[in-house]
Specification:
mainly alpha
Length: 700
């Protein structure tokens, strides 16, 4: 029996769970006519942005596909797989964001009844994103396997990375474009509203509030969904590729990891193993999603406990199911320890991110306290916190790699990434829930709902800030593990390393070392790319912010009665400005990511490209964690003050905290999370280039 059918069936089960959550959310009350009006405006702006972004993206996808098809060493199959990956990623992101846009107003209406009902509606809306990603991901991978696994190994090896590259390209555009939109609108709204005019957040007199709400969906739902979709599929792609190239280079993969099976059957099981572990994770995630509920106590600890119940339950179930899969396939028990190392590392990275970004803990509270001494002190303490927060995830990833390599060599390292992402369905649900809760809070303010409703939505929003930071931290760790697997696959595919009889990786030729000229040049160039990428994306946010501020000021000047609340702002103008600038500014950093590895590989050669990938991975990992956690901590430090600490809203400490939050916005929601995709896209493009570079020496 071809076990890929099990993966296909589980994918359909996940899709059925998505349908159940969609039906549940759409049955909920949409609230008053005012709630419906605000929610409809946000939905209209979100869909308008994504339609325009996808039109721009489609042109790039077609151009890349044509290039792949006409290059003799690549071919039409690779082009088809590339387009298929792009379409799957676009579909997953669109479906999840569309549902989030329909959930925000319903969450606000549900919060009028109870906190638990508000959490239930918003989380299930987010679960649509999480389970859609994993369902489409595993169905797409299964289809790819059914269509092309009978090709000769070397052809299958080069086709499946194209699927991941298509998903990566979509993710990069969604993350960068959505990030520029959301943070330009958010920062502009805060600066001109809270700081300059002294009006509350989400005040309906501020023309940028709808654009801010739209940005939460296009950046933090669609962008994050596309980001983790490509991590999800590329993890399986890396594992399958390593299996294929490993068998070509050395039979050790099958003889040691599947010792009781003949080589041909062992290879099949090695292909099926990552898919079946992901299928087991989907089942665990569906169960975890149904376990999320909370009482009526408006406390961060209670809300965090509700989400932890779902994620930790799914983690335990995924470990149990993963063990059964490994045992059933006749694989070495060492592969279970490799998978478990990744699974545990992913869970602990989430907890570490939570510690450094939640206002329930000391680091973020210290940033709030520093705000009493001004904006400069806020920036210094927050950035220091971001830098300090890098050590737990780096140590965890290093330990996971060591354990995985010990028990499963290079295949074990790739399988650790599979374990880490196996519970993505529920992990992404807790992340996508955040923007929905944030939107609900903004809608509550704009609709002038009673204070107790805003208190509930604020509690849900604060939790959402923490889960968003945790989700981004998880995505960073997964990206590093995934990129490492892809880099190993590239190095083996182009013949840079060989596998010994004991499973050790040996450089080839032997004289090639870390200190060789091609590798050193590549390392330096690779280390340069992440900071340049961050600079471009953060500058783009600054340009968008300035344009939003100018537009809001213009409306206050020219629309009579606007500040008095007797006239209505032109919300669509800000949405259009943010859309236009975001789509323009996302092109240069995105195209740079595509071209850089191609130029390095073609001009400097395959050894320099290996160094390039390693250099970018090292600096990108540090930068991504720092920017993500500093931004998340600044945001929650502001929330801690708004909860009544250090003078509360309107105090000098609050104004300083708003400055920190504004500085952190493009870090945590644009530059930081986009680095994940940049690293993976450059790695998978390099793997796609392997047929071209395998016999090409370059200039050095």
């Amino acid at each position: 029996m071809d076990l890929t059918w099990i993966c296909m069936i589980v994918g359909l089960v996940g899709a059925a769970a998505v349908a159940n959550f969609v039906r549940y959310v759409l049955r909920q009350d949409e609230g008053s006519p005012r709630l419906k009006e605000i929610s409809a405006a946000i939905r209209e702006g979100g869909l308008a942005f994504i339609h325009r972004e996808y039109r721009t993206l489609s042109i790039v996808v077609v151009v890349v596909a044509v290039i792949l098809a006409v290059v003799p060493a690549l071919g039409w199959r690779m082009a088809v797989a590339f387009v298929f990956g792009a379409l799957c990623s676009m579909g997953a992101g669109y479906a999840g964001m569309n549902m989030a846009l329909r959930t925000n107003g319903r969450t606000c209406a549900a919060a009028q009844k109870s906190l638990n009902q508000g959490l239930r509606v918003s989380f299930r809306g987010g679960a649509v994103m999480g389970l859609t990603v994993v369902s489409i991901g595993i169905i797409g991978l299964s289809i790819l396997y059914f269509v092309w696994h009978d090709l000769p190994d070397y052809q299958f090896l080069y086709i499946i990375p194209a699927y991941g590259a298509g998903a990566s390209l979509v993710a990069l555009f969604a993350r960068v474009g959505g990030g520029i939109f959301t943070k330009g609108a958010d920062a502009g709204s805060d600066l001109v509203g809270k700081v300059e005019a002294g009006i509350p957040e989400d005040d309906p007199r501020n023309a940028a509030v709808i654009a801010d709400n739209v940005g939460d969906n296009v950046g933090d739902v669609c962008g994050m969904g596309a980001d983790l979709f490509e991590s999800y599929v590329e993890t399986v792609v890396a594992t399958m590729t390593l299996t294929t190239v490993g068998v070509i280079v050395a039979p050790w993969v099958t003889e040691t990891l599947f010792p009781t099976l003949p080589v041909e059957k062992a290879l099949q099981h090695a292909w099926w193993l990552p898919l079946l572990i992901m299928a087991a994770g989907i089942v665990a995630s569906v169960i975890g999603c149904f376990l999320v509920r909370v009482g009526e106590k408006v406390e961060m600890s209670a809300l965090l406990g509700a989400l932890r119940r779902g994620t930790l339950s799914a983690t335990v179930l995924a470990a149990v199911f993963g063990f059964l899969v490994i045992h059933f396939l006749g694989a070495s028990l060492g592969l279970f320890w490799a998978m478990l190392a990744g699974l545990v590392a992913g869970a602990l990275m989430g907890e570490a991110t939570n510690y450094f970004t939640s206002y329930a803990f000391k680091p973020t509270q210290e940033i709030s306290e520093a705000s009493t001494r001004g904006g400069g002190a806020t920036i210094i303490r927050g950035f220091a916190n971001g830098l300090m927060s890098t050590w737990p995830p780096i140590i965890l990833v290093a330990v996971a790699i060591i354990i995985a390599y010990k028990f499963g060599s290079f295949y074990g390292v790739a399988l650790a990434a599979v374990g880490m992402l196996s519970t993505l369905g529920v992990t992404l649900a807790t992340d996508a829930y955040g923007p929905i809760a944030d939107n609900a809070g903004g809608i509550a303010t704009q609709a002038a709902l009673p204070p107790e409703v805003r208190e509930r939505t604020d509690a849900l929003d604060s939790l959402g800030n923490t889960t968003a930071a945790t989700g981004k931290g998880f995505a960073i760790g997964a990206a590093v593990m995934n990129s490492l697997g892809l880099i190993l696959a590239y190095a083996m595919a182009v013949g840079i390393v060989t596998v010994s009889a004991t499973g050790e990786l040996n450089p080839w030729p032997p004289e090639l070392s870390l200190l060789s000229t091609p590798v050193i040049v590549g390392l330096i160039l690779g280390a340069l790319i992440p900071p340049v990428f961050c600079a471009m994306s953060m500058k783009a946010v600054g340009i968008t912010t300035a344009a939003i501020v100018d537009e809001v000021r213009r409306q206050w000047r020219e629309i009579k009665g606007l500040m008095e609340g007797t006239a209505r702002p032109e919300y669509s103008k800000c949405v259009d400005i943010a859309t236009r600038i975001a789509l323009k500014e996302m092109l240069v950093p995105s195209i740079m990511t595509i071209i850089a590895p191609v130029l390095v590989g073609v001009v400097l050669g395959k050894y320099a490209l290996a160094g390039f990938l390693i250099g970018s991975l090292a600096t990108g990992f540090i930068l991504a964690i720092t920017l993500n956690n500093a931004g998340g901590a600044w945001d929650n430090a502001k929330k801690w003050i708004e909860a009544g600490k250090f003078g509360g809203k309107g105090s000098d400490a609050h104004k300083a905290a708003v400055v920190g939050d504004t500085a952190g916005d493009p870090m945590k929601d644009t530059a930081g999370p986009s680095l994940n995709i940049m690293l993976k896209l450059m790695s998978v493009i390099s793997l796609m280039l392997a047929p071209v570079l395998v016999h090409f020496g370059g200039l050095i």
